[in-house]
UniProtKB/TrEMBL annotation, chains A, B:
Family designation: Belongs to the HrcA family.
Job description of the protein: Negative regulator of class I heat shock genes (grpE-dnaK-dnaJ and groELS operons). Prevents heat-shock induction of these operons.
Heat-inducible transcription repressor HrcA C-terminal domain ranges (all copies): 103-320
Domain HTH deoR-type: 34-62
Natural source organism: Nocardiopsis sinuspersici
InterPro entries, alphabetized: DeoR_HTH, GAF-like_dom_sf, HrcA, HrcA_C, WH-like_DNA-bd_sf, WH_DNA-bd_sf, WHTH_transcript_rep_HrcA_IDD
Descriptive protein name: Heat-inducible transcription repressor HrcA
NCBIfam families: hrcA
Gene: hrcA
Length: 337, 337
DNA sequence: TCCTGGCACTCCATGGTCCTCAGTGCTAAT
DNA sequence: ATTAGCACTGAGGACCATGGAGTGCCAGGA
């Protein structure tokens, strides 16, 4: 049904349309690409491609435009990830070296990715649930409150002030800190609830109230409410695009953290590039955008995701190359820390 | 030169233009506002206002549009800050209560402000330089590294990993922590450098290297590199506006943290509402936007600023009311913490 | 059987013309 | 000083003609 030449035509249509943003006709194709056949033949192929739903006409007597299905086929079978130029690779290195802490790594990464792709970049902080506890610190603040600081092996630091403990006994705090660290340091956050279950019973009754308060905040902040921090950059790049849906809808969607999390979260294949095209995205406002995302992590442990949001009419090979490269570099940097 | 009636005409022009986004003519003015004179008289006044540069015509035979100078006069003399409706006030309360930490307060505030004004909201974290040290914590991480956590009275927490200390001696860390807290807790960050000057000499020589490393990181992260954290929300509201400058330029400017900081920083009058209109903004891309900003703080100590960015054609009284109200509420919440 | 040149057809985009209408400036009268 | 009246202006919308890119189809050729 879809012989080699038809696929070549589809590829040419996608490439030309991405370049020019104008419906592409049979003549233009025959001129620009060495397909070795006449426009008439191309027209016949186009009819077949249109019948199968890979391309469409905005109106009679106009050229063809790829559909979501067409882009999908292009991404799956007709293109390969484009490796970065050496200039781009140097840009990555100079951009990411010299970051002093996780916040800065993430901030720089997201800017880098948006500049490389000229689109909107999204970077997720290393997931809490896939991190392990490195240290728990309890810091008395005055005589009534305690600040809890949890440091993970991925560099994330979560802090929370705990209130309503009554008068604080410093040695009790020290004891609790010691017990907590012995119980949970080194564990994955998902294992924490089980590990602290019988901790209260080991605390002398007069301090059990404090221990319970601290534990409940710990569990709440780390496990139940495992908020995923997300940063994005490059929204200005959207202004250049003219969306089928209104720009406002896209911007609104991008401001919803939950939407972004799901957007990245729906990757099918762990540790691989994922591309979601147009209506494949669950969100109304993102029907005319595509999302390219990838896992990053240390070794083969995936920590979180990064991604790029742009118009369905995007340079998939280039974008995929940039996302993959940045994901690898960020993994290296985290490993080196 | 500018008698009462001319001012009334200017006010009416501004109000109508803000509402309709269309040049306003003498007849429409006479109809909608009870100026008590005929369109012809209004026309004469308009000529005078135009000669003085308060309004302008997009082209002959069109209505008038306020200039930056016109908006300026309107803000300074012809309008008053509009108090919030009770519904809005309730919205603020329900929005801001229940925030557990500073991050959440700031995140909620910026969303709230953007929703109230339907524009882009900017919120600055409480400035480090105007905060005081509540506690410094040193946490050994493994045997080679120490994490330093600085907690300020405004709820900001800065953390940094310190490397290259060689083998760590736990009691030495404890001693240093004690000395540090005795030396600087309670001080404003600006006073920290002076207060730690002669600290190294009090440390036993074998641990002096560690002390120096810790101090240098402390000074660098808090004082020299006093980065101002800024958050913004509501960029989607820009999509509804048609800017003279391109939307892209505006979005780009808003992604530059340094620009935002200057934008808020240029307030003339502390603890008051500041309005910068159009070309009064230093930044090219923001020539067709206005910025309404205000200080917030606890008591009469100003901690940082919040603001709103929108088209010069904005509802100044309403926006100013919202900014002022939110600034006050955030001050109360911080005071209550 | 597949490809190609030729041809009639279809619409969009472009640009010109005309007309309407909101709004102006000016003048003369109150 | 204010107003009614009036001629004038220019943007924007409706209308129409035209050019051209692109199509579908068919008949002839490899």
């Amino acid at each position: 049904m879809l012989d080699e030449r038809k696929l070549a035509v589809l590829r040419a249509v996608v490439e030309d349309f991405v370049n020019t943003n104008e419906p592409v006709g049979s003549k233009a194709l025959a001129d620009r690409h060495r397909l070795g056949v006449s426009p008439a033949t191309i027209r016949n192929d186009m009819v077949a491609l249109e019948e199968d739903g890979y391309i469409t006409q905005p109106h009679t007597s106009a050229g063809r435009v790829p559909t979501d299905k067409g882009y999908r086929l292009f991404v799956d079978r007709l293109s390969s990830v484009k490796p970065l130029s050496s200039a781009e690779r140097r840009a990555i290195e100079s951009f990411l070296t010299g970051a002093v802490d996780l916040d800065e790594i993430v901030a720089r990464t997201v800017r880098l990715l948006s500049q490389l792709t000229r689109q909107v970049a999204i970077v997720q902080y290393p997931s809490l649930t896939r991190s392990s506890v490195q240290h728990v610190e309890l810091i008395p603040l005055g005589t009534q409150r305690v600040m809890m600081v949890v440091i993970t092996n991925t560099g994330r630091v979560e802090q929370r002030v705990i209130d309503g403990l009554g008068e604080i006994n410093e040695t009790a705090v020290n004891d609790l800190r010691g017990m907590l660290n012995r119980a949970i340091s080194g564990l994955y956050l998902g294992e924490v609830p089980g590990a602290v279950e019988d901790l209260p019973s080991q605390v002398p009754p007069e301090h059990r109230h404090m221990a319970l308060s601290v534990l409940s905040v710990l569990l709440e902040s780390l496990v139940e409410r495992h908020e995923e921090k997300i940063v994005l950059a490059g929204t200005a790049n959207l202004a250049a695009v003219d969306f089928a849906a209104s720009l406002r809808d896209v911007l609104e969607a991008l401001e919803e953290n939950m939407v972004l999390i799901r957007l990245l979260g729906e990757a099918k294949d762990p540790s691989m590039l994922t591309v979601r095209i147009g209506a494949e995205n669950f969100h109304e406002g993102l029907r005319s955008t595509s999302v390219v995302s990838a896992d990053y992590g240390v070794g083969n442990q995936s920590l979180a995701k990064i991604g790029v949001v742009g118009p369905t009419r995007m340079d998939y090979p280039g974008t995929m190359g940039a996302v993959r490269a940045v994901a690898r570099y960020i993994g290296q940097i985290l490993a080196g820390q």
